[in-house]
Every structure is written in C-alpha cells, then in structure tokens.
Amino acid sequence: MNNVSQKQEKIYFGLDISQKTIEIFALKGEKGVPFGKILNNQKSLNDFFDKVPFPSKTITVVLETGTHSAWISYCLEQRGYEVIVAHARDLAFIYKGDKKSDRIDAEKLARVARADKKLLHPVRLMSKTRQEALLAIKARDLLMKERTCIVNAIRGFVRSLGIDDAEYSIETISKMYSVLPKEIRQNLRGLFSVLTAINNNISSYDKRLKKIAEEYPETKILQQVKGVGPIIALSFALIISDPNRFSSKECASYLGLVPKRDQSGETDKQLGITKSGNKLLRRLLVQGAQYIMGPFGEDCDLRDFGNRIAQRGGRIAKKKATIAVARKLAITMLALWRNPDVKYDPHFKAANKQNRCA
Fold this sequence. Notes:
The chain has helices spanning 42-50, 69-77, 92-95, 102-115, 128-160, 182-214, 218-222, 230-240, 248-254, 279-293, 301-310, 317-338, 348-357, and strands at 11-17, 21-28, 31-39, 59-64, 82-86, 122-123, 263-264, 267-268. By secondary structure, the chain is of the alpha/beta class.
C-alpha cells in the first residue's frame, strides 16, 4: 500500500471480478498501482480495504455487473466509498479488447471512471431487501422453466406411442398418469413424480409471493390492469424501484422492448428489439401481453392496439403485436404508479374521445 501516495486526491480502484478471485488496480492521478489478486470473498475484500491508507471520501471503486456485484457494492458502500457498477454489456472496449487480462480490465475500469463515469453506463442496484424478495420470483421462474421442459418431454414420449395428450394443459397433465398403460406409467413414474413436486412448489411460491406483494402498496395499483397479477406487479415494483426513475421511453428502452437501430445514409434497417435490461421482467411483461391478446383477455385499449398491429398480416405480425403490447403495458403500469389517485380505465381512448366530442 505504501506504493501509493497518501496525498488528498481522488483514488480510483478498478475491480475485475471472477468466480474465485478479484483483480485490483488503483489509480491516483497518472500513477497506477496493480495490487494483484485477492480471493473473492467478504473476508479477503475487507482485509484488503482495511489496509488502504486513504480517507473513504477520496475513494471510488469501479466494478462490472455480475453475480457478485451486489454484495460487493453493499460491502464497499458501508465503508463510505463511492461505488460505480458499470454495465458489462455496454463495455465493448473491455470484453472485445485485443489485449485482455484481468489486470488490464481492472485498469481500464479505473481509468474510464476517472475520465468520465457516464462512459461506464452505471447501473443502480436494488436494495438488499428488494433483492431478497426478487429471489423468490427468480426461484419460481426457474421451476416454471423446468416444468415446461418436463411437460414437453412427456408429451413427446406419449405421442410417439400414439397416445393423445391434447386434452391436458400444462397444469393438468399430471392427471394423465393414472390413465396411462401400466408399463408406460412405470417408465415415466420419475418424471411425473418430479412434475408433481414442481407443481406443489410453484403453488407454495405463488402464495408466498402474494403475501410479499401485499407489503408493497404499489402492486395493488399495478394490478388494476387485467393481465397483471401479483407476480408481474411485484417484479415491476422491485426492479423499477422508483416510478420517477425513468420516462416512459426510457422505461421501455431499459426493459429491452424497443427496436434496435442500424441507420447509415439511405439505409435504415428494420431490426428486432434490443433485449437489453432485465430479462425476467421483460419475459413476464410479454406473458402479460399474451394474456391480454389471448382468448381470456378483456376488451380494452391495449388489446385493440395489439389487434391493429396483428391485422397488418405477415409472418411475424402476431409476435410484433405481443411485443408492442408488452411495451405499452410497461408504460401504462409506470403511468399508473406515478398517478396513484387515477383509476385505470381500460377504455380510456374511447372515453377521452367522447368527452372531447361532448
């Protein structure tokens, strides 16, 4: 540590984090000091920064988004440090560099932070309490994926034997087990057993998440939209955190529901959505849009909006309509959250047009 001057000047620490180690590079003015690697655990991190001989207000620590970014940032913020969590996906100058190593990556983070923090595309992490609540949603989401995988496998197996499964939905396919021939039951017993356990656990998570949602009053406001249940509402509240954090366009962009852009001269390509931001919330919003556009969705402005796009025809018109409704749904939910005293009107456009004509 004595290699770095104790003069009162801003110190930038770049941290390149891997599963087992953390590479640390310190930058003070033009002088850089590579400290090498420490183990990736809380004790090693605290032991290192306990020896740093600078006031906490002079220290800025930079790291990339990843599995360990949340707990490391909490740990360092408690010391009074400024912590910047850089958006890893937007740092092509790091992950596409010709000369790439942990030390070089850590140095780049420190130098860019000193030059202009905005170049790091910093993200804002949610509080520990919200992160713990989101953990239940992520666990349920994983079980849903596993259930879909098992159900698809069972359907494939029984169809290959000439057994019709059309009358069974993903929720009721467990009932098929009792009507299968004895030999097939024996061969598929393990899959149906796991499927039953997964269904039971999903039901438990649904009950738990409903209770957690009650702790966040904004979820009740968001559930005014039919197609938005406790899980979508809670995920939106936890991940967005603050209704004034984004404008409507910024919210859609943050969730990766806006088209990519590749324009040069007379060429302006039509591309798919960016798929940036939180994958879980984007997927849940798409599921909400699918319900709104589906057979059980009620007649509303969102459904009419999607139908107009779907009616344009084309191979992927329906898919585009679903994505557009998901984007509109996110914007609607944000508007409702910002204006809690305004009741959601599913036919707002028609009512507004009638009022103007009156």
